[in-house]
Amino acid sequence: MNTIFDFSGRSILVTGASSGIGRSTVELLCASGAQVVGAARNVNELARLAEETGCEPLVLDVSDEAAIDDALASLDPFDGLVNCAGVALLERAIDTTAASFDCVMAVNARGAALVARHVARGMIDAKRAGSIVNVSSHASLVALDDHLSYCASKAALDAITRVLCLELGPYGIRVNSVNPTVTLTPTAVKAWSDPAKREPALQGIPLQRFAEPREVAEPILFLLSDAASMISGVALPIDGGYTAR
Prior knowledge:
The protein is an alpha/beta fold. It is built from eight helices and seven strands.
């Protein structure tokens, strides 16, 4: 797998690593020489990913604070973090329940903040500069029907990115978000298979197509790399121009 980045000697934690954008990010990082810990809840997919890429698998539920502390306590400090774990429970605003709202926020916002807290503490203690990339969404930048909880969680994640940027910058730690449009993970391929749903969505994207996981993973690697050494606090749309309208 060709890559333009060299992460030799760097250790990076990727959550949500078992599928989609997270999996593609792990594949590219491992091909670029990084020592990668791939974290997710799906044990079988993690095992397959580890066999295919050589990453270190880590079973982790980021909605569980105790599990985060237990899982990461024994690991050496990292040079980078990709917060990619995420869930989406889509429902009309007037049908939103406290349980569904809390579930989405617990993973997409709180989980990312708690994982970043742990990784940043390790970087600071080890006096390591580094980079954190949070995988947000264009749903943080625009309103989408049936996405109240999801939009709120991703907007919160972008706010978390900005605060982390402010507080961690003095330690040489950069923090950014990427904000992709619909990305053709296996789940998304099924979800957008109906032309009646897909075609109106594509009309809103100037490039007239959805993103592939690698098209999100490669900008993530850029933000992790020294090529982005003066970039921090941004929310980078990867949306084919959707939010330019």
